[in-house]
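quick q for whoever's on today - can somebody do inverse folding on this one?? i tried earlier but teh output was garbage lol. tokens:
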């Protein structure tokens, strides 16, 4: 009797159980954890490092952050299109991913070590990081297709969310001494950031082997899935994600610059938000099973639009109020982080007949949108800091204009997600 397991539309001849570490959820989770260490650290700390450690003007730092994100988006689009046009590139992905891992991890580790007041060097290093990250990120995301066929869209989204939240938790702990240093570049801070980059690279080591095996599978499926990988639902979803995630990311970055009742509490913002994001995995999973991932995502965006602007009303020197507000803010934000990937996987998979290359190209369109959004968030926060005239210890009341912009972005994302074309049936995924 054959030991191969059925995989929905595709039954793989290359999936015996003894290969589960190399190609299964464990390897996928390890790579996603490592990638998320770099992503969370870069997204949360880059603007802070540019402004406080490298002494770059906030408006210029925000523009650099935006430019690097746009470059990352361009890399995603070009790389995804190249994989779709020339499937033979699948064969070089394992070797390319090794160089990409080294570039991304090394770029992250070296950034705070650059000389102060040198935007050219910082910009070049950001470009290196973004290029390497894109070349590792896109093929890794394409591997989601295989696991989603086995474990369901929401199941894999839950795995991604847990690994991402765990990585963000590590970054949150690591950020405490970075933020408490208040712009002083000590050797311990440098070593800590370097250690995060090194751990990320080690965790991503299974990626080349996974891509080598996927290249064999791609050769078996290349004739399937003709037609465009883009449909109206995917375009609407990418637009919703861009405006919604830009607002959420801007709010998270702004928290690092507010006076929330003491430097220790401000330094712990990332950690507190991450704890709430991890709890959101279990909070939102039953909601998505009940009303569908798409409706649950629209609800999470709507709640974010309601709660985040209220941060401007928090009284200073009120730690308990701050803790409660961060907890409330993190739950819908964590829901957006998890459910976005479930809805994306459902939207792409709903077309049927998707080869790995087409799946990667569709993922590339989505990651282009979110990376542009995250770049815009840094640009907006840099402009907000310039308008306030401070880069630290800002009164929460000054958050109000930015909070209104976040409300508009999240509210529009909720409407677009709710009115996306296609099925919104609840996901048939067993409880975690």
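ok took a stab at it. sequence:
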């Amino acid at each position: 009797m054959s030991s191969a397991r059925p995989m929905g539309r595709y039954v793989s001849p290359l999936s015996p159980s003894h290969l589960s570490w190399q190609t299964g959820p464990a390897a996928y989770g390890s790579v996603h954890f490592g990638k998320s260490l770099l992503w969370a650290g870069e997204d949360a700390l880059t603007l802070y490092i540019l402004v406080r450690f490298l002494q770059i003007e906030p408006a210029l730092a925000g523009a650099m952050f935006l430019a690097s994100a746009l470059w990352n988006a361009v890399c995603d689009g070009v790389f995804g299109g190249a994989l779709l046009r020339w499937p033979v590139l699948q064969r070089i992905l394992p070797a390319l991913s090794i160089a990409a891992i080294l570039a991304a991890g090394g770029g992250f580790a070296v950034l705070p070590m650059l000389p102060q007041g040198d935007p050219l060097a910082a910009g070049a290093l950001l470009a290196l990081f973004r290029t390497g990250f894109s070349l590792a990120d896109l093929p890794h995301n394409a591997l989601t297709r295989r696991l989603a066929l086995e474990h369901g869209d929401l199941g894999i989204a839950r795995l991604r969310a847990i690994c991402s939240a765990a990585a963000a938790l590590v970054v949150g702990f690591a950020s405490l001494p970075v933020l408490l240093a208040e712009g002083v570049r000590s050797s311990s801070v440098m070593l800590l950031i370097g250690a995060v980059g090194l751990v990320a690279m080690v965790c991503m080591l299974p990626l080349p082997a996974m891509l080598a095996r996927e290249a064999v599978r791609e050769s078996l499926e290349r004739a399937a899935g003709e037609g465009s990988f883009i449909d109206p639902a995917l375009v609407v979803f990418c637009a919703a994600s861009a405006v919604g995630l830009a607002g959420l990311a801007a709010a998270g970055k702004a928290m690092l610059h507010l006076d929330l009742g003491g430097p220790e509490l401000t330094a712990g913002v990332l950690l507190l938000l991450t704890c709430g994001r991890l709890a959101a995995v279990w909070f939102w999973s039953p909601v998505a099973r009940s009303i569908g991932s798409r409706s649950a995502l629209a609800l999470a965006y709507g709640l974010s639009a309601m709660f985040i602007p209220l941060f401007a009303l928090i009284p200073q020197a009120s730690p308990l109020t701050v803790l409660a507000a961060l907890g409330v803010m993190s739950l819908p934000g964590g829901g957006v982080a998890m459910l976005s990937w479930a809805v994306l996987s459902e939207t792409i998979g709903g077309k049927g007949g998707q080869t790995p290359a087409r799946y990667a190209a569709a993922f590339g369109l989505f990651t282009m949108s979110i990376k542009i959004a995250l770049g815009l968030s840094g640009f907006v926060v840099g402009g907000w800091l310039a308008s306030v005239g401070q880069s630290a210890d800002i009164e929460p009341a000054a958050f109000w204009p930015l909070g209104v912009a976040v409300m508009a972005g999240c509210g529009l994302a909720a409407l677009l997600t709710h009115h996306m074309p296609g099925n919104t049936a609840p996901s048939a995924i067993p409880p975690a």
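fwiw The longest helix spans residues 356-388. also The two ends are 30 Å apart (CA to CA). so keep that in mind when u check it
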